Amino acid sequence: GQQLNQSPQSMFIQEGEDVSMNCTSSSIFNTWLWYKQDPGEGPVLLIALYKAGELTSNGRLTAQFGTTRKDSFLNISASIPSDVGIYFCAGPHPSGTYKYIFGTGTRLKVLA
Amino acid sequence: ETGVTQTPRHLVMGMTNKKSLKCEQHLGHNAMYWYKQSAKKPLELMFVYSLEERVENNSVPSRFSPECPNSSHLFLHLHTLQPEDSALYLCASSQDFEGDTQYFGPGTRLTVL
Fold it and tell me: Where does the pLDDT of residue B99 fall: very low under 50, low under 70, confident under 90, or very high at 90 and above?
């Protein structure tokens, strides 16, 4: 079935470092969403992308809608300890717009 | 701050118990969703409601029974669950169900003994 693959699966970084992660699909997506999930909590929407090539920022976070429409990227600049969590990409399933597909997640740990 | 609330946040139940999970959204949305999140697996869509009508039952066993009495409230009734049903159950809402961004509640951590 349709799947979104995220890379890396997990990463340990030092506080202050920049972080890059990506999400790839075998199908074209018209919307890309990035969520963050803290332990024991629900995912919180960070950034939504609606157009190929679009680059959108939310504070220290920047996400891009890949030009092929099969990938998206999320960057975090100058990481801080509260950036710890799992980052998910998501998008509407190509066959049914309300069916979201979620990526496998990138688990981020920040070392102070 | 979240526009979607869920209660209880944690629930432990035996396989013969009956319990219910509650979700409430304060965003004026028309669509609500139940997801299951198991360890190391992507979120699994369970049910979708639009304007209080169920539009999707994603092959969920009948021991899970959803109820949507109005557009702000969504319940998940549980009975005779199995240990493998232990997971984080997440509720979400969106303005409409056709592709609108979904906003999640904090989830209910369910443990079935």
Answer: low
Tokens of A33: 């969403």
* Number of Cβ atoms within 10 Å of the Cβ of B77: 13
CA B43 to the chain's CA centroid: 12
Q: Cα(B83)–Cα(B14) distance, rounded to whole angstroms?
A: 9
Contact call for B104 and A104, based on CB within 8 A: no
Helix, coil or strand: residue A69: coil
Q: Do B109 and A40 touch (CB under 8 A)?
A: yes
Each residue's pLDDT tens digit, A36-92 = 999 888 999 999 999 999 999 999 999 999 999 999 999 999 999 999 999 999 988
Q: By the CB < 8 Å criterion, does A41 face chain B? A: yes
Interface contact A99, partner B, CB < 8 A: yes
Closest approach of A32 to chain B, Cα-based (Å)? 10
Q: How confident is the model at residue B56 (pLDDT cuts 50, 70, 90)?
A: confident
Nearest-angstrom CA–CA distance, B79 and B57: 17
Shortest CA gap A18–chain B (Å): 25
If you measure CA to CA, which chain B residue comes closest to A41? Answer: B106
- 3-class SS at B60? coil
